[in-house]
Design goal:
Distance between the termini: 9 Å
Strand content: under 5%
Order of helices and strands: HHHHHHHHHH
Radius of gyration: 29 Å
Helix content: 55-70%
Number of strands: 0
Largest sheet: none
Shape: elongated
Length: about 280
């Protein structure tokens, strides 16, 4: 009876296969996503050097994608290997990294809410830089056109912001044929119009606001963006929750597995210590 009990104790494991392989699957999925992100970032960086886009953005999007992908790859690698090998060191690294990232996101969200005016000024600065470099990069141009059409806006604060661009500048010395114009994406398009008149913004900056609103979306994109955020707080909250839940799940599963592995190690040490005890 004593020998059978010793064998049962030695075969027993505190480590749950469900937790172990669920954590591995969780990390493996995000590990694949990290590889895709790094691949896209490397491809974008090699195929296109968008200096104009970089001038209005604080960080190169391709480089940011690569950095986030590499960081994500490292963290999920620790989670994958740590769960399969039941390695406490790797699992603790995974858990600590996720906790730090979660806390940084939380702090960033609070700071963005507290310093909303500074965030607004930063966005305004980025939009103004994008306006300046509008014609210099086709991807940046498409992005601005998409934003103006989607939000029904024109410029940063008002449609006359387009004078910051050398082609749309309203100065008399400007030889451009687009002088005092705005991009076609500012125009109010009739729903039944099939062919888009790309010159519909010609000379719009010379008009008063009350006249311009008959032909273009004269309000700036900053106010439109703020209004959109205020009217979609539940959607943004859902997105934030969707980002937070996987991190919290990863932290919880890794902590559970770490505790199970520690209990298993204590059981193994106990069995080794009392293996020769005839009274067990």
């Amino acid at each position: 009876m004593g020998g059978r009990r010793r064998r049962d104790d030695e075969d027993y494991s505190f480590v749950s296969p469900v937790v172990k392989y669920l954590l591995f699957l969780f990390n493996f999925i995000f590990w694949i996503i990290a590889l895709v992100m790094v691949s896209i970032g490397v491809y974008a960086r090699m195929m296109k050097h968008a200096e104009a886009a970089l001038a209005c953005l604080s960080v190169d999007p391709a480089v940011m994608l690569m950095v986030v992908g590499i960081l994500m790859f490292f963290i999920t690698f620790c989670g994958c290997v740590g769960s399969l090998r039941e390695n406490i060191c790797l699992l603790q690294t995974f858990c600590v990294c996720l906790t730090v990232i979660f806390m940084l996101q939380l702090v960033a969200g609070v700071l963005g809410f507290v310093f909303a005016d500074k965030a607004r000024n930063k966005v305004t600065e980025m939009i103004n830089k994008a306006i300046i470099h509008y014609r210099e990069d086709i991807d940046l141009q498409n992005l601005i056109d998409f934003g103006q059409k989607e939000f029904g806006c024109c410029g940063g604060v008002t449609f006359t912001d387009w004078s910051q661009n050398m082609y749309f500048d309203c100065k008399q010395s400007n030889p451009s044929r687009e002088r005092c114009s705005v991009p076609f994406s500012c125009c109010i398009m009739p729903p039944d119009k099939v062919v888009i008149n790309t010159m519909c913004g010609q000379g719009m900056q010379e008009l008063e606001y009350t006249e311009a609103v008959k032909f273009i979306h004269a309000n700036g994109c900053i106010d439109k963006l703020v209004d959109w955020i205020h009217s979609n707080l539940f959607l943004l909250g859902g997105i934030a929750l969707g980002l937070a839940i996987p991190q919290l799940v990863g932290i919880l599963l890794s902590q559970i597995l770490i505790n199970q592995i520690k209990d298993q190690i204590e059981l193994q040490n106990y069995n080794v210590k009392h293996r020769s005890d005839p009274w067990r």
